[in-house]
Design goal:
The protein has four domains: 228 residues, Carbamate kinase (3-Layer(aba) Sandwich); 152 residues, VC0802-like, CATH 3.30.2130.10; 142 residues, NAD(P)-binding Rossmann-like Domain (Rossmann fold), CATH 3.40.50; 181 residues, Dihydrodipicolinate Reductase, domain 2. Helix 7 packs parallel to helix 9. It contains 28 helices and 28 strands. It is α/β, with parallel strands linked by helices. The strands form five sheets. The chain has an eight-stranded mixed sheet, with helices on both faces. Strands 20-19-18-17-21-22-23 form a seven-stranded mixed sheet, sandwiched between helices. The protein binds 1,4-dihydronicotinamide adenine dinucleotide (NAI), the ligand N[C@@H](CC=O)C(=O)O and sodium ion. The site of the ligand N[C@@H](CC=O)C(=O)O has 11 residues, from helix 21.
């Protein structure tokens, strides 16, 4: 035998009530015995009744309008669900109940007073009306339903609005009642009860769940089914954590912790009677009746995760009371908490460090000022004597609770929790863990709530892929290729690497598009074109900070000199950066160092493997040697893919400018190819390598060996530059022919040795290791303490869209692994 309870949304409209009736009929057809059905008021009605009461209390006659509205809603149910010839009798009964409500409010309006006692009576009409109407609907469908006013069964004390149930009397009354009704199906008003003197009381908002549990326990039901509008309890609030999913089984204790911390699926007192009788509570969805929902019972099986759920209280304040006079003095906390209890201030969380120097506790914001006054008065003497310094209040905070019985047996949960919050720059203000070990609560700033919840959910519920939120600036050749590569690897990363890449922002020089829900990788170009707004980097970064998404990565695929100005603020906001743009690392040494320090300080990543040799593993190799304690003696390298390509491809008689054009078309050159031909690009790269090798070099320490005649450099635009190149063909032809005549090849070689950089155009013979390069190859030779006899050499294509995007992609994925 089961007790069924349907909440406010389930009985909100004709459409929804049809679903409720179908569920009841279905049970009966399957032979499942229903002991009782408990109903809430139609959704919105209780709030309206409260408003009506308040309006009447100030003699505002408009309340009559609201009463008509409530009456109308119930009439509509009758019209929609009861055959015409049976309707008038039910209309009459509804009208009679509504008249009773009107009489009551007339009285309230006359005496202009609304006590908690009267308010409870006013509120009782919501459930009385819904049960009245729906029991008649069921009767007309052949169910032997019978309206049951719970005030005759549930006896309480006289704490109106939050009455305590007298279990013994109540259980007896319930059993007596059920002994008399035979096979009738009582439709019981949720939420309400009455005192020994038959005054109406209510059991607290959400109390209909509690009514069902009281009935179920008294009747020794097999199940208490709470039918609501969600698929059971979820691992987190799905409005805040889109990846939250249903929890199939949960213990009473876990459900209690989660519902105290804001998971509004079940009213916490409901759990007690069910727990005492070991009756499972099932949370089911009226609108998705086939879903298995959540079963709450003593033991929960089918556990895939160490924690069961994450919940939060979104708005709290923290009160801190501290002073040297508190150390070792017994009774301060006793006085503190008995004072709070005396004033009925509910304390949500308490934390005291073992130094006993301070105690902090969380309360609802509406109590903050009152608590300060109360405590300042109560501890006036201690404050006057300096034993207590002050009572401070910190606002705009949230509490997040990780809940789960599984935490008892496993270590490392707190470590995981703090690490994920740390990596996402979420500062923890206070921590509490009860010795039951099924709840670890942390207090954080409210503006980090969504980020923290999502990041935590992501690491604790590991079967789900970790999200990496990308913001790409510069959707040019490399940027576009990167997105294409990510798109084709998306499924592999999600299923094999448990990494879900989400593009949140993308921009080029003209337009930018940001969407925190993610931009589909298959149509980002169309969306950018159609929905994008004029690019503004400050606005882009502002939005990024505003969204405050976990695991955010900023990718700079431009060669822009201004974008690096945003790197440090981004790192400080715990956003990792990946970039092929060399500007930041080749500016002043101080700036280079500042970025390095920011990454260490904030525990985020700044990765730029493609600054040198595109996708070739040069920076990673160098950093590996450095961190393992090797020392660099010499770096000798060919670092320009563009120049390699030109020197490997140029044949006398061909126009030099056309070879440069080819290099540009193949995607080897910088957005402005003069950067390559002037030697600037190589200068940047060797400077970066020297710095990575531990040397403090400024750009002025690198002399550029420029290959271009002045007229080419000073051309006003890139097309003009190409024209200028054409007119200088003879200059380049001579240069190359001279080498060719000696069977040598031209190589643009950068060397770092003894703290000094040299860059020169060399002609090398076939016995030189740099002779046999082809295409856009780079070659880098590291001579170190450990690689002294024979240097470590890395060689391969050092420019081009695919290889560069691959390097950027690898950096992005490595951030994903780090954050996980
Ligand atoms: N092409 C290659 O082989 C390699 C390139 N790199 C680097 O990759 C970066 C990108 O190169 P490519 O994709 O070849 O250049 P590109 O010129 O094709 O793309 C650059 C993109 O950045 C956009 N952009 C420029 N300033 C912007 C701003 N302020 N805001 C938004 N968007 C902006 C442009 O609209 C363009 O779409 C450069 O820093 C380059 O040095 C690094 C290694 C190899
Ligand atoms: N333009 C560069 C590629 C990027 O670093 C080159 O030609 O090497
Ligand atoms: Na590289």
């Amino acid at each position: 035998m089961n007790v069924l309870k349907f909440g406010g949304t389930s009985v909100k409209s004709v459409e929804n009530i049809k679903k409720v009736i179908a569920i009841i009929l279905n049970h009966r057809q399957n032979g499942d015995v229903i002991g009782a059905v408990v109903l809430s008021a139609m959704s919105g009605v209780t709030n309206q009744l409260i408003e009506i009461g308040r309006m009447a209390a100030v003699s505002n006659p408009d309340y009559l309008e609201l009463i008509r509205g409530i009456e109308e809603r119930h009439f509509n149910v009758i019209k929609g669900l009861i055959p015409i010839k049976e309707q008038s009798k039910v209309f009459g009964r509804v009208r009679g109940t509504v008249n009773e409500l009107e009489d009551l409010l007339r009285g309230v309006s006359l005496i202009r007073e609304l006590s908690d006692r009267t308010m409870d009576l006013v509120m009782s009409f919501g459930e009385r009306l819904s049960c009245l109407v729906i029991s008649e609907c069921l009767k007309s469908k052949g169910v032997p339903a019978r309206f049951c006013d719970a005030r005759e069964l549930i006896k309480t004390d006289a704490q109106f609005s939050m009455a305590e149930v007298d279990d013994q009397t109540t259980n007896q009354l319930i059993r007596n009642y059920f002994a008399t009704i035979g096979t009738d199906l009582p439709i019981v008003t949720g939420f309400i009860g009455s005192t020994a003197n038959n005054e109406t009381t209510t059991l607290g908002r959400g109390g209909s769940d509690y009514t069902a549990s009281i009935l179920g326990a008294a009747l020794n039901a097999n199940y208490i089914d709470i039918w609501t509008d969600v698929d059971g309890m979820m691992t987190a609030d799905p409005r805040k954590v889109p990846n939250a999913f249903n929890i199939p089984t949960i213990t009473y204790a876990e459900a209690m912790e989660l519902s105290h911390f804001g998971a509004k699926v079940i009213y916490p007192p409901t759990l007690q009677p069910a727990f005492a009788k070991n009756i499972p509570i099932r949370i089911l969805n009226t609108f998705n009746a086939d879903h298995e929902g959540t079963v709450i019972s003593r033991t929960a099986d089918r556990r895939d995760f160490t924690i069961t759920g994450i919940s939060s209280i979104d708005d709290i304040v923290l009160v801190n009371i501290q002073g040297s006079g508190m150390i070792g003095v017994a009774g301060v906390s006793a006085k503190l908490f008995s004072t709070l209890a005396h004033y009925k201030i509910s304390v949500i969380l308490i934390s005291q460090a073992s130094s006993e120097h301070s105690i902090c506790f969380a309360i609802e914001p509406r109590n903050a000022d009152r608590v300060r006054e109360i405590l300042e008065a109560e501890f006036a003497t201690e404050i006057a004597h300096g034993h207590i310094d002050n009572i401070s209040i910190e606002r705009d905070l949230s509490i997040i609770a990780t809940v789960g019985e599984g935490m008892k047996k496993s270590s490392g949960i707190a470590g995981k929790l703090f690490s994920v919050l740390g990596k996402n720059g979420v500062n923890i203000i206070a921590i509490a863990q009860g010795s039951s070990e099924i709840n670890i609560s942390v207090v954080i700033n409210k503006n980090n709530l969504s980020k923290a919840l999502n990041a935590m959910h992501n690491v604790f519920f590991q079967s789900e892929a970790r999200i990496l939120n990308l913001y790409l600036v510069g959707a040019g050749l490399i940027g576009r290729t990167l997105l294409k590569q990510i798109e084709s690897q998306y499924e592999f990363l999600r299923t094999e690497k448990l990494l879900r890449i989400c593009l949140v922002g993308v921009s080029n020089t003209k337009k930018m598009l940001l969407d925190p829900k993610g931009i589909d990788l298959s149509d980002w170009q169309d969306r950018l074109m159609n929905e994008g707004v004029t690019t503004s980097l400050p606005a882009f970064v502002e939005k990024l900070k505003d969204y405050n998404l976990p695991n955010s990565v900023f990718i700079d695929c431009t060669a822009d000199k201004d974008i690096p100005l945003f790197y440090e603020p981004l790192l400080n906001a715990n956003v990792s950066i990946v970039t092929p743009n060399k500007v930041a690392n080749s500016g002043s040494y101080a700036e280079y160092k500042r970025l390095q320090r920011a990454t260490v300080r904030r525990g985020v990543k700044f990765l730029y493997e493609t600054n040198v040799g595109a996708g070739l593993p040069i920076i990673n190799t160098l950093q590996g040697l450095m961190t393992s304690g090797d020392r660099f003696l010499k770096i000798e390298a060919i670092l320009s893919g563009t120049l390699s390509y030109i020197f490997n491809t140029y044949k006398p008689g061909v126009s030099f400018a056309s070879v440069v054009r080819e290099a540009k078309e193949k995607g080897f050159t910088e957005p402005d190819p003069r950067e390559d031909l002037s030697g600037m690009d190589v200068a940047r790269k060797i400077l970066i390598l020297a710095r990575e090798a531990g040397f403090e070099l400024e750009p002025s320490d690198v002399t550029i060996n420029n290959l271009l005649p002045e007229s080419c450099i000073s051309a006003p635009s890139i097309p003009a530059f190409f024209e200028e190149l054409d007119t200088n063909n003879a200059y380049f032809e001579n240069l190359l022919q001279a080498a060719e005549g000696r069977n040598e090849k031209l190589r643009y070689v950068a060397t770092f040795e003894n703290g000094k950089v040299t860059i020169e155009l060399r002609a090398v013979g076939f016995d030189h290791p740099f002779y046999s390069l082809s295409g856009a190859d780079n070659i880098i030779s590291f001579t170190t303490e450990r690689y002294k006899e024979r240097p470590l050499v890395i060689k391969g294509p050092g420019a081009g869209a695919e290889v560069t995007a691959t390097g950027v992609f690898a950096d992005v994925v490595s951030i994903g692994s780090y954050l996980a």
